[in-house]
Amino acid sequence: MESDFYRAQALYALLPYLKTSILNYDKWCNILSTLSHLERSKLLERLPMLTKTIINLGSKEALVETAYTIRDISRQW
Predict the structure, then answer these.
(1) DSSP state, 77?
(2) What is the mean pLDDT of residues 45-73?
(3) Could you say which of 25, 35, 36, 72 is the most buried, measured as most Cβ atoms within 10 Å of its Cβ?
């Protein structure tokens, strides 16, 4: 797809069906990059589906740090 927005919309719709827990780091980075084109509320809606991947690629601490970062960024808005 040419448009980042439409690519993000398609991934948003497919995310519930993806086996995100088996993603490697490169695919994970691509997915995050694509999802960054979504509205913040849509990204946050799908974030719980990504927790297994965050833990698998990082750790439980990485998941905690992700939550803290989201909280900090949300304060700026």
Answers:
(1) -
(2) 92
(3) 35
Q: Which residue has the tokens 């960054």?
A: 36
pTM of the predicted model as reported, rounded to 2 decimal places: 0.78
Task: Identify residue 57 by its one-letter amino acid code.
Answer: L
Instruction: Return d(Cα 74, Cα 50) in angstroms, integer.
Output: 19
Place of tokens 């993000």: 8
For 4, the token pair is 């980042």
- Helix residue ranges, H only, the chain: 4-14, 25-35, 40-46, 51-57, 60-76
Cα 16 off chain centre by: 12
With 0-12 CB in 10 A as exposed, 13-18 as middle and 19+ as buried, what is 28? middle
